[in-house]
Backbone:
């Protein structure tokens, strides 16, 4: 996720930020038996799909898998700047 954001926006992230994100992905993997690469791919695909309909702030995006008893929930916090005009009221 950080690699994608860095490539798109050209922002540098500190080593601490990168290490923190990697640790978070490892912890999610341990709790849900989902690989960090799977979660990263999921985030990238969510960005791709949601960006068709809305302008979002990728750097503020947070996608996690949370476990409670025997269930896993996908929790996404995605800051939306605005809806794209072509998507408003369009039907597929």
Residues:
């Amino acid at each position: 996720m950080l690699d994608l954001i860095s490539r798109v926006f050209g922002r540098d992230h500190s080593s601490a930020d990168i290490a923190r994100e990697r640790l978070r992905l490892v912890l999610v993997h341990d709790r849900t038996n989902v690989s960090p690469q799977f979660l990263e791919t999921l985030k990238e695909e969510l960005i791709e799909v949601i960006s068709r309909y809305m302008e979002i702030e990728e750097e503020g995006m947070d996608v996690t898998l949370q476990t409670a008893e025997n269930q896993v929930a996908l929790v996404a916090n995605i800051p939306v700047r605005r809806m794209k005009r072509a998507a408003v009221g369009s039907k597929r």
